[in-house]
Design a protein that fits this description.
27% strand; alpha+beta; five-stranded mixed sheet; four-stranded antiparallel sheet; 355 residues
Length: 355
């Protein structure tokens, strides 16, 4: 009996010992799970905070370009149709946002450096695109009034951009007004072009400017034209400000960049002429405008097509150079019309029947 109890005690002891060892081993898997969760959370947090060198382009607000036009001391004819100005919203993206954007066919990821150089601050970029819009508005007024036969008087030449690596960017700034070049008075873009002739790359010249209301003179080293070796250039892009025979202004709000140029030009023509340029249709469009009436390429064309159709436009006018890319945009029924000049846009609008 005593032997039986001893064996029983031994068996119980072995059993309890095995249970203790098993209990020590079993709880380890939750620790691994918790560790994995923390690891995944850490990786997710890191991915959220890593900003990629890309911008996500999506369609932005749409507005009637004619609503931005104000003309005084002249008869105006507010249009009933719509000439929609298109915009794009761009934003920095992290890894998660880039993955989401990649799944949305209406959003494009584009290299950030294509729009904002690495050494340009956000504030400098903002000022640059606002200056581009101001220049675009001036061009639109000049081109529209010139098309309508009004005489424009040149009054100012303003710097809007620089050629890459041009020495002039070290002493000149976007927004400077050019008053003189090597002693020659400058009142038009042609004056400036003529004044540069006869100089050579590397020449140091004195350029009179107005910056923030103050006149000053700076010394500028001329660069070599990349398209014409041996010929000199200042290395700047300028806007020729002109004075119209009556007050005309464009108020596009906080929108920046030059891509509304064509639509503002059409809106001015429509506002200052009787009848309906759009024939009552809803027309959207985008493209820069040059002083000779040429319509230039813009960015974000696919997103602008999406925005145009969402706003109810029947047709969208696009720069000829953007046409092929525009055809790849997500759309259903909107018709895409390529134009190379302002006259092309006007000719197309004349083909529309009245609504």
């Amino acid at each position: 009996m005593q032997h039986y109890v001893q064996e029983s005690y031994s068996d119980v002891t072995v059993t309890i010992s095995s249970m203790e060892e098993e209990s020590k081993r079993t709880p380890s898997w939750p620790l691994y799970l918790i560790g994995a969760i923390f690891l995944m959370g850490g990786l997710a947090l890191a991915a959220w905070n890593i900003e990629l060198p890309y911008l996500a382009f999506s369609s932005g607000p749409v507005s009637d370009a004619a609503d931005a036009i104000t003309a005084e001391d002249v008869e105006t004819f507010p249009p009933n149709g719509e000439l929609l100005m298109l915009t794009v919203v761009s934003q920095d993206v992290n890894l998660f946002e880039a993955l989401i954007a990649g799944l949305d066919p209406t959003i494009d990821l584009v290299p950030k450096e294509a729009y904002q150089p690495p050494d340009e601050t956000d504030e400098e970029y903002r000022q640059r695109v606002l200056t581009q819009m101001s220049d675009s508005e001036q061009r639109a007024i000049t081109v529209a009034l010139g098309y309508l036969g009004y005489d424009m008087v040149p009054i100012d030449v303003r710097i809007t951009d620089f050629v890459d690596d041009a020495p002039s960017s070290d002493v000149l700034e976007i927004g400077d007004s050019v008053n003189s070049f090597d002693g020659v008075e400058i009142v038009s873009g042609t004056d400036l072009t003529d004044a540069v002739e006869g100089h050579h790359p590397g020449d140091l010249v004195e350029v009179g400017i107005t910056r923030e209301g103050a006149d000053q003179t700076v010394e500028v080293e001329l660069a070599e034209r990349p398209d014409d070796p041996g010929q000199a250039m200042i290395g700047i892009t300028v806007s020729e400000l002109t004075k119209p025979p009556f007050p005309v202004s464009i108020d596009a709000g906080a929108v920046g960049g030059p891509s509304a140029g064509m639509m503002h030009t059409l809106a001015i023509v429509d506002t200052l002429t009787p009848g309906e340029l759009t024939q009552g249709h809803v027309i959207a469009g985008t493209g820069t405008i040059a002083y000779d009436g040429t319509v230039g390429n813009i960015g974000g064309i696919r997103q602008k097509i999406v925005g145009a159709e969402a706003a109810g436009a029947e047709y969208v006018l696009v720069p000829e150079g953007n046409y092929d890319e525009a055809l790849t945009a997500e759309r259903k029924a909107i018709k895409i019309v390529p134009v190379h000049t302002l006259q092309d846009a006007l000719d197309f609008l004349e083909t529309l029947g009245a609504v």
